[in-house]
Design a protein that fits this description.
By secondary structure, the chain is mainly alpha-helical. It is built from five helices and no strands.
Length: about 110
Amino acid sequence: MSGKEKSSKTETTQMSLREQLLGRLADDDATSGKKREVSVMTRMSGEIVEILDALVELDIFKSRSEAVSAFVEQAISARGPMFDEIKTQASEIRKLRDSAKKHAFVAFQEDSK
């Protein structure tokens, strides 16, 4: 097998592995219009960073950030209904918390008169 054929086969294998790891999320994002526009800083163990670096070194991902983003998106997407319920409950809790704060503020204002 020539060098060119090996290179082409390697690129095909890498793309296939990349698509498997991403769960085709990159394609879905492109068609749905979703953009990655919010940065999130995180600390990870050295072992995890070594794995991320290996994935980048193998050209499976362009960066650590892309790898982490892909894995987080895949994990959350796989449990979509559960996370939808979590968002709904968090919203309800926020509303209750805001209401309780307003009541406490009114009570404090009345007591200080």
